Amino acid sequence: MTAPPSFPALAGQGWSVHKRPTFSTRVASHVSGREVRSPLFAATLYEFELTYDGLASNAAFPGLGTNSLQSLMGLYLQCEGQYGTFLYTDPSDCMAAGQVIAAGDGMTISFTFLRALGGLIEPVSWVSTVANVYLNGIAQSSGWALSQPNTLTFAAAPASGTVISADFTYAFQCRFLDDQEDFENFMSGLWQVQSLKFRSVKP
Asked: Looking at the 3D structure of the chain, how many domains does it have?
């Protein structure tokens, strides 16, 4: 599978950053005050909102990165607004070490990469790199492969009860929330974006 383009890390990004876990719940209320709730999402979707205080359109502001405006605007145009997807690496949420993925059953060879967040265990969107894979805590130098976006595949099924874990990095596969974005040129060679919104999508 071909990886989507990556969201650029740019020095001109400002504060604050918003990250909104999103659910969809159907609620049916009764006259007695009781209610029935039904979750519609199997996994959380995340909405992000970033601001950019400074984007350079030329080489006059090297601290912001030469042509950083073109990097961000180019990604937006490449995605055609909401249509295409890209990979966003959240600096605060992008890696797992010794993460338990599953227990072998002697038959299954493919397992979805998971990550822990507090008491929650959920699939990751897109695995970027895998440093180590462990069977019962023993690193495996071969016999496994990463199948993107987020699957660990073994050449032979791990034995029943074998604990499968891994060290890996991951990104969120996302799309922009709007088909129009405001890039503001506030002085010669300098631009800003006051609100850039995007959300994760299911792989």
From this structure: 2
